[in-house]
Amino acid sequence: MRISTYAIVLLALSTCTTIQAQTNKPSAKQQKSSNKGTESPRYKNAKAPIDARVNDLLARMTVQEKLGQLRTQLGWEMYDKQGTKISVSEKFRKAVSEDHVGNLWATLRADPWTQKTLATGLDPYTAAKATNMLQQYNLEHSRLGIPVFLAEECPHGHMAIGTTVFPTAIGQGSTWNPALIGRMAETISREARLQGGHIGYGPVLDLAREPRWSRVEETYGEDPFLNSMMGRAMVKGFQGENIGSGVNVISTLKHFTAYGVPEGGHNGGPVQVGLRELYQSYLPPFKAAVEAGALSVMTAYNAIDGVPCTANPFLLKDILRDEWGFQGFVVSDLGSVNGLAGNHGLAGSLAEAAELALNAGVDNDLGGTAFAKLEQSIATNALTKSRLDEAVKRILRLKFEMGLFENPYVDPAKAKNTVRNTSAVAVARQVAQESMILLKNEKQTLPLNKQIKSIAVIGPNANNTYNQLGDYTAPQAEDNIITPLEGIRAKLPANIKVNYVKGCDIRDTSNVDIAGAVNAAAASDVAVVVLGGSSARDFKTEYISTGAATVGTAKSEQLSDMESGEGFDRQSLDLMGKQLELLKAVVATGKPVVLVFIGGRPLNLNWPAENVNAILCAWYPGQEGGNAIADVLFGDYNPAGRLPISIPRNVGQLPVYYNDRNQQKHDYVEGPASPLYTFGHGLSYSSFTYQDLQIQVAEQSAAKQADNVQSGNMQRGNNSAMAPKSSMIAQVSLSVTNSGTRDGDEVVQLYLHDEKASTVVPLKQLKAFKRLHLKAGETKTISFDLSKDDLMIYDASMQPVVEKGSFKVMVGAGSKDIRLNGKFELKEDLR
């Protein structure tokens, strides 16, 4: 495999090619084909091959109609709602008549940025009617009748009114259960598609190795392998076996690539990573998702080593297309093409920015304002007809595959009866339950006894609906969300006294009642204190054009709780406002204290780790979070969530993740170099015993032969997703026994270390895991197959290779909780 250099990338950015000018007016041939009374064109024949339909339609299109397919405009502006009456907006009429609109984004989105509320936005029934109305108007008022693609935000539920709200991705990753996340994705896909959506933005596959960054909550954490498995599950859940099923959507992978490690934690900031680290850490989750069949990829705002991802042919052509065989379409992030002329200073105009992006491999402009200028590029001969047609074909093909030309409409009654049904809510509760991470549990404080006489529930996140939902969440009806306080009350008999005091806000210090919280704790048998962060947007927050929130500086008004979520980067990771002071005061009462952490990123838990009896990490647990938290607190659910990201002790440690390449890390003058809680950590109400580690190494000659077959297929340009799977190098098996008195889940984790490699590798790298349920006293034997992909590194020449030598196998319940060790030997290299 040949790796391009950044010098080649920069040279490619300056390359300009030509396109032959075409006019607004259809040619005589094009006009004739669209006249009434003529024979139906082939692209409208459902029985014709899709390739033939695409080519027939493309031949009939003007340049302006083609450009309409390469722009995605803001969807929520395309309808008007007055009371219960919904109509096509003037903006949509113009988009159809002048822009030949091909795609809309966030048509059903509702939040403070879009200014869509429960009153002005659309519920599932009216959403389905509205998308039908838009499709019908477009088909009746456009020359060729090409249906419109509707893309929707779907990271932890469809971001629309009345849909199911799941835990954010950092919580999803904490389940370590890809099969469950696949079921969740199927639910999200169904809810979006039945309302008229076709594309779901998600999963986010960025590695979160910079917790100051505002979007940690949107990721699956710090590890390439865990992210890969979760990403594959999401893609398969979204897209199913057939995107034309009527219940599946196209999955858009975000953000390509290395977006989660910006300098200083600044959202969208520059990234400095080497080529080897790019290939071995940041690209694998995207590669795995592409191999799973993902049909869309979104570029990132950031630049890597000075080259913006939205104008980087090395990423978008050499890697994505040539190496991985990606067949879908590439869409920019909102306004990121404009950013080539703005933030990045690569282009002198929007037209030049659009040329750079399209030539680099971007097929679709989210926002659409930059690609609208591409007509100017025709006169300056800056584009080729083949590149323009290539991008248009990628969009049209998927519209045909989804069956939109035959059936662009959805059933409003079905949307009303299916979205957020009891089955969907049950999945939301299960994901929330499995995401709960018990970080600490001294003196068997948990689970709590339901027969206690009284319990204090304290804190700014104890009874705040929106603080437990995370960013990219629509407005919610009051009875949709179960808060921790509500979950606890529902769990206990009516005679148990629940003493609730908020105590303080997340950030604001003008409304503090620590004395009331202390009194409540003193009058109770136990205190549950719910602290952390918030990504809840409000209508006072200001937003930039990309939808990211801006950090408010107003001193006169009460501060928003928002300290996380897109745009809210942090300097420190300390609990904000008076939260720590509140916790210290409650602990000082001498009553047993349980800290429940609700937030979107790791925050400083040093003092609680030293002084609080038990700590439960819930991240943003979604609409069923209160029930799931209560299930764990009272022992109706035995927690087994594991950290997908390390929790640092101090920002001075950053970056701090378990699988770095620092071979001789030593402590600081002020304290340990290790994180407070490390990747993979999580406790249970049960105990588990590991034994009987067995490692069976396969015949090396057979492995090498299979390796050579796959290499030959790749050299012939076959899609890597279709190539033969890597042969098994070694099989690792072991037995796990639930030696406790409660049934429960255990997450078995397998880590690997290449003991002598030609380039520096991590001391420990996750390569397999399995979440399994064991009854009290039950033993199960499990096995993991290690393939050449699991052992592969990039050598000094940037060639992928499995090198001969000794490999250490480490199996346990966390990256720092290794229970069994073993080794195996490879006698020859596999290239």
UniProtKB/TrEMBL annotation:
Domain of life: Bacteria
PROSITE patterns recorded: GLYCOSYL_HYDROL_F3 (PS00775)
Signal peptide: 1-21
GO terms for biological process, alphabetical: glucan catabolic process
Record domain Fibronectin type III-like: where: 746-815
Residues covered by region (Disordered): 22-46
SUPFAM superfamilies: (Trans)glycosidases, Beta-D-glucan exohydrolase, C-terminal domain
Keyword Hydrolase recorded: yes
Pfam family name, one: Glyco_hydro_3_C
Keyword set, alphabetical order: Glycosidase, Hydrolase, Signal
Chain intervals with Polar residues compositional bias: 22-38
Keyword Signal: yes
A GO term, aspect molecular function: beta-glucosidase activity
Matching InterPro entries: Cellulose_Degrad_GH3, Fn3-like, GH, Glyco_hydro_3_AS, Glyco_hydro_3_C, Glyco_hydro_3_C_sf, Glyco_hydro_3_N, Glyco_hydro_3_N_sf
Membrane-traversing stretches: none
Family indicated by similarity: Belongs to the glycosyl hydrolase 3 family.
Classification via PANTHER family: BETA-XYLOSIDASE, PERIPLASMIC BETA-GLUCOSIDASE-RELATED
Protein name as catalogued: Beta-glucosidase
Organism (species): Pedobacter quisquiliarum
Lineage: Bacteria, Pseudomonadati, Bacteroidota, Sphingobacteriia, Sphingobacteriales
